[in-house]
Structure formats: structure tokens, C-alpha cells
Specification:
The protein has helices at residues 2-24, 30-53, 58-63, 65-88, 94-104, 109-121, 125-152, 165-170, 173-186, 196-203, 205-219, 227-250, 255-265, 271-279, 284-313; strands at 157-158, 161-162. The chain is mainly alpha-helical.
Length: 314
């Protein structure tokens, strides 16, 4: 666990601090953060989502139906609860609540999935299965839902009228790219591996630029620590993995898959929510503060969930 914290969690803080320091020293401006976010949202993130999902195998999705169904129901359910609670309890707009759901209702499985699971459970087919299925749920289902909810809340306007929220969401590369990848996987269409570098080169910029931009964004505002930030962290680090563990145990999931699913659910918030929020200037301060606090809290939550999940699974 110490190795994971040093190799995978510490770099997030280092890069975020570099972004924060560059903003405070005026090397980059707040406007530059918007440019970085636009680069990630329109190009790097869609490429990363597409190339990661398209490598999955159709049989993987049906290899463990309990894993697939429980991941889908619980993660999407917590995502929608995060949206509802942000809108009803904390009195944000529907668009802001959608960004909140993209942050506190989605684990950063694409960036930290393999990095956290493989050192603990090994580079096995089961590890790849868990990462692939949860990646599809987060990236091909929750992101399009979140974008649609943002548009339904009035984020995008055309000619003074609201456009169709679903169609507006599907027009975004960050939505149609993972959906296209899932369709290709379900149809058994193999993406030529020789073309991977065309996507991977820009995809590699995704996590680093996103975290740097989050730090740069945070430099332009005061860090916020209040009950809403704490609530978001609890939803992400406690409620989601707790429900995954409970439901997975009730339905008798395989021990290893149950443990990996729980730890994947306990990962910090997805960077995609921060990117989308910054791009549309919504829920930026609270969202970025929630991300930073959740990463710190993950240092405690991760070993705790590993221990609890192993105890329950055994």
C-alpha cells in the first residue's frame, strides 16, 4: 500500500501543486486553465476513453454477470443520488448538481484502476475484467447521463432556446467516443492495434494535463472545506464502496472480484468531472476542493476497505 501511495497517489499531489504554484506565480493564468481543460475534454479524454474501452473483449462483459449488473446498478445509483442530494439538499442548480455527480459519483478508474488493483491482486484476467466493466459504467454511461443532465439544466443554449439535452450530450466527443467503443465491443469489432498509437499519444496527456489544470484552477480561488466537501467525500469513499460490498456479498460474488470491485469503488473522484466543470465554469471551487480532500482521505480509506472486503469475502 505504501508503494501505491508513493508511485500513484503522490504524483497527483505533485502535479496539482505544480499547477497551483504556476498559477500563484503568474506563469499561467486562470484563462490558460480553460484552454487546458478544452484540450483534455475535446481530444485527450475522448481518446483515452475510446482506446481503453475498445480493448475489452465481448466475453468479458458476460463472464461475470453479477459483477457487471451490481457495478452498473450501484455506481449509477450513487451517481444519481449525488445529483439529487446536491440539487435538493445543497440547493445548487441542476447543471451544477450534474457536475457534482460526475465528481463524487464516479471513481477515477481509468487513471488509477490498474495502478491500485494490480499490485494488490496481480495482473490477472479478473483484474482486467473489473477495470474494464467499471470503466464502461463510468465512462460510457455516467458521463453521457451527466452531460445530458447538464444540458437539461440549461448549460447549452441555441438561439435562446434549450436544445435537446440528450442530443446535445451525444454531440460531445467525451460522450460519443466511449459509446462508440462499447458498441464495437458488443458487436465483436476488433480495433486494429496498429492504430493504437494514433490515440495513445494524445490520450497520455489526459491525466497529467487534467490534474495540472485542476491545480491551476484552484490557485485562482480559496480552498473550500465545509460540510458539502465532506459530504461529497463520504458519498464517494464510504457510501459507494460500502453498497458495492453489501450487495456483492448478498448475491455471493466471487471473493477476488468482490474485493477488487469494492476497492475500485473507493477510488478518488474521476478527473473527468473536474474537467467538465471547469470547461463550463460550474461547481469549480467545491468540485476541485472535493477532489483534493478525497485524494487525501483515500490514503486512509483504501487500506480500510481492503481489510474490510477481505474479511467479508473470507
Amino acid at each position: 500500500m505504501i508503494d501505491i501511495l508513493i508511485k500513484d497517489i503522490l504524483p497527483i499531489f505533485v502535479i496539482m501543486f505544480l499547477g497551483y504554484a504556476s498559477g500563484k506565480s503568474k506563469v499561467f493564468s486562470y484563462e490558460n486553465a480553460q484552454v487546458f481543460n478544452k484540450l483534455v475534454l475535446n481530444y485527450a479524454l475522448p481518446a483515452a476513453l475510446f482506446i481503453s474501452i475498445v480493448k475489452a473483449d465481448r466475453t468479458m462483459l458476460f463472464n461475470d454477470l453479477k459483477l457487471t449488473i451490481i457495478s452498473l446498478v450501484i455506481i449509477t445509483g450513487v451517481f444519481l443520488w449525488s445529483y439529487f442530494s446536491c440539487y435538493k439538499f445543497f440547493k445548487h442548480t441542476k447543471s451544477e448538481a450534474a457536475v457534482c455527480a460526475l465528481i463524487s459519483g464516479s471513481p477515477t478508474i481509468g487513471f488509477l484502476g490498474f495502478a491500485v488493483l494490480e499490485p494488490i491482486y496481480g495482473a490477472t484476467a479478473s483484474t482486467g475484467l473489473v477495470v474494464a466493466i467499471i470503466s464502461i459504467v463510468v465512462n460510457a454511461i455516467n458521463i453521457p447521463i451527466g452531460m445530458a443532465l447538464m444540458n437539461a439544466g440549461g448549460t447549452q443554449q441555441q438561439g435562446g432556446k434549450k436544445s435537446n439535452p440528450v442530443l446535445s450530450a451525444l454531440a460531445e466527443p467525451v460522450c460519443w467516443a466511449p459509446i462508440l467503443a462499447v458498441i464495437m465491443v458488443l458487436l465483436g469489432i476488433k480495433f486494429p492495434t496498429i492504430l493504437d498509437p494514433n490515440f495513445e499519444l494524445i490520450a497520455k496527456a489526459n491525466a497529467g494535463v487534467a490534474v495540472f489544470a485542476a491545480g491551476l484552477t484552484l490557485s485562482g480561488m480559496k480552498f473550500q472545506m465545509d460540510k458539502e466537501v465532506a459530504y461529497n467525500a463520504i458519498v464517494k469513499l464510504v457510501v459507494m464502496p460500502g453498497l458495492l460490498l453489501l450487495v456483492g456479498w448478498i448475491f455471493g460474488m466471487k471473493a477476488d472480484n468482490l474485493q477488487m470491485m469494492v476497492l475500485a469503488g473507493a477510488l478518488p473522484p474521476a478527473f473527468s468531472g473536474i474537467i467538465i466543470g471547469s470547461r463550463y465554469q460550474m461547481y469549480v471551487r467545491t468540485g476541485t476542493s472535493s477532489l483534493a480532500f478525497s485524494i487525501f482521505a483515500f490514503i486512509v480509506a483504501a487500506p480500510l476497505w481492503i481489510w474490510i472486503a477481505r474479511m467479508v469475502a473470507s
